[in-house]
Amino acid sequence: MELPFAESYKIKMVEPIRKSTRLEREEWIKQAGYNLFGLKSDQVFIDLLTDSGTGAMSDRQWSEMMLGDESYAGASSYFKMKEAIREILGFNHFLPTHQGRAAENVLFSVLVKEGDIVPGNSHFDTTKGHIEFRKAKAVDCTIGEAFDTTLIHPFKGNVDEAKLENVLKTQGDKVPFIIVTVTCNSSGGQPVSLENLKMVRRLADKYGKIVVFDSARFAENAYFIKLREKSCQDKSIREIVEKMFACADAMTMSAKKDAIVNMGGFIAMRSKELHEKASVFNIIYEGYITYGGMSGRDMNALAQGLYEGTEFDYLETRIRQVEHLGNQLMAFGIPIQQPIGGHGIFVDAKRFLPNVPKEEFQAQTLAIELYKEAGIRGVEIGALLADRDPVTRENRYPALELMRLAIPRRVYTNNHMDVVAVALKNIFDRRESITKGYRILHEAPIMRHFTVVLDMIS
Ligand code: F0G
User: Fold this and answer.
1) pLDDT tens track for 386-397
2) Whose CA is nearest to atom 15 of ligand 1?
3) Is residue 4 a part of any domain in this protein?
4) Residues 68 and 98 placed together within one structural domain of the fold
5) Nearest residue (CA) to ligand 1, atom 5
6) Closest to 67 (Cα-Cα) out of 54, 80, 57
7) Is 214 considered catalytic here?
8) Active site residue 78
9) Distance from the CA of 52 to the center of ligand 1, in angstroms?
10) Is residue 301 among the annotated active site residues?
11) CB 454 within 8 A of CB 33
């Protein structure tokens, strides 16, 4: 008999979590203005709000914390991080930053100016925010297949060659760089193939542009390449990572994801000149160039996390857990983005709750239902997040109304995943009776989803 699959680690330290009653949760979510960001963490049983900064560090990472060098300049921790980045990602220059969006802020301060156009594959919100804040435009060149949740495609994060070339051909003079997000968070944690990255490189060379990777989940991307791209099936994760980054000139990194730390990020690049220019902004916004908003101990843990995060056994454990949840949901007939992505499950709320009008926020309604059902916190990626049109102030309704269940790394067991699956099934079984959603009582002028206050429609 073939042995079943099991995790590639055992547990040395635990953190208690609390269950609650449905009555308690109904009261808490009401007090939170029906906004899951407004809940206290101890009001949540299984927290799938994000996989960012919520992972469990290993014993080796914790021992690296003790070895952190807190010198202001030239700390050994900086050099440890530099060596890990050089060895794994192949960049000789880097700048530490306190997290991913800070890396974007520093790099884009050098590269983006008013009127620019930055093509890419479904830019993450903060990436788009840092582009638009500079009065530039993010143009989405993701392949059309990504927007049909039922369609099976091995690389739904891919860049559409024709769309990208069209931007470069018609507006190339306004393009400072091309950005590729690996894996593509906004399309459901979907990977980009190595072949597609090479295509982007070819087009960039043809039009004389630089390529930046938004690399938050680069290792999960490499795992999918190994499994799904024939030419790479015998290569190690590190070899694939090397080939991926050979297609880039620079990268931004939110280390809170694939480097499995609670806080941290960096920018890495090949060009010494770009490093010099970015250093100025790093010093203004983040800190001196050898710490950039990170403490020495955190840089040590990050360096160690880069090595662990690119081990096949770790990645297999991680992604198979996400699949464990996704497969159960599919067996229950629950509509999710397929194939299952790297860092979470994206439930198609339009198809899950067809009786709730889109004006009443279907994905948010589903996320609230799931919280009430079992104390599970997911997050809306739909009309609330899409916000209003800056000019007309009308609500924008995106192509996909999703509820994301992001799975923290090395934190929950498959038993927790089973609870999530059954809780969603229970809601799915009574979906016909859910006909009403929520209306907005109060919202901020931008990024409203974090603080929006809602009321139940009765
Ligand atoms: N790029 C991607 C693809 C991301 O998913 C994130 C963060 C960032 C950049 C920004 O990094 O949070 O360190 O400043 N994503 C988190 C999430 C917030 O929940 O998906 P950060």
Assistant:
1) 888 878 999 999
2) 52
3) no
4) yes
5) 185
6) 80
7) yes
8) no
9) 7
10) no
11) yes
Q: Which residues pair with 346 in a beta bridge?
A: 404
Q: Which atom of ligand 1 is nearest to the CA of 254?
A: 13
Structure tokens at 55: 């992972």
Q: Where does ligand 1 bind, in terms of residues with CB under 6 Å? A: 50, 52, 99-101, 124, 126-127, 181, 185, 214, 216, 254, 256, 265
Q: 53 near 256, Cβ under 8 Å?
A: yes
- Give per-residue pLDDT as tens, 266-301: 999 999 999 999 999 999 999 999 999 999 999 999
Question: Number of structural domains, the chain?
Answer: 2
72 is catalytic: yes
* Residue 65 and residue 289 in contact, taking contact as beta carbons nearer than 8 Å: no
Q: Do 351 and 407 share a domain, yes or no?
A: yes
What was the pLDDT predicted at 377? 98
Strand-pair category, 438-442 with 453-456: antiparallel
Contacts of 135 (CB under 8 A, 6+ apart): 114, 115
CATH number of the CATH domain containing 409: 3.90.1150.10
Q: What is the pLDDT of residue 391?
A: 83
Q: How many CB atoms lie within 10 A of CB 260?
A: 28
Is a pLDDT exceeding 90 seen at residue 185? no
The per-residue pLDDT for 186 is: 82
Nearest CA to ligand 1 atom 8: 100
pTM of the model: 0.96
Q: Model confidence over 325-352: pLDDT tens digits? A: 999 999 999 999 999 999 999 999 999 9
Question: Cα of 345 to ligand 1 centre, how many Å?
Answer: 16
24 CA → ligand 1 middle, Å: 31
Q: Is 298 a catalytic residue?
A: no
The DSSP bridge pattern shows strands 250-254 and 265-269 to be antiparallel
Residue 255 CA, closest ligand 1 atom number: 13
| CATH classification of the domain holding 118 | 3.40.640.10
Out of 216, 248, 363, 406, pick the active-site residue: 216
As a whole number, the mean pLDDT across the chain is 97
Choose the residue to mutate in 185, 285, 379, 380 for probing ligand 1, maximizing ligand atoms within 8 Å of C-beta. Answer: 185
H or E, element range at 228: helix 218-228
Domain that holds residue 28: 22-51+312-456
Whether 323 is covered by a domain: the verdict is yes
Residue 118, classed as helix, strand or coil, is strand
- Give me 298's structure tokens: 């955190």
Catalytic residue among 9, 125, 198, 372: 125
What does the buried/exposed string (b/e) look like for 118-134 if buried means 16 or more CB atoms within 10 Å of the residue's CB?
bbbbbbbbbbbbbbbeb
Residue 347 CA to ligand 1 centre (angstroms): 19
> What pLDDT, on the 0 to 100 scale, is given for residue 400?
87
Identify which of 231, 303, 228 has the alpha carbon closest to the alpha carbon of residue 266.
303
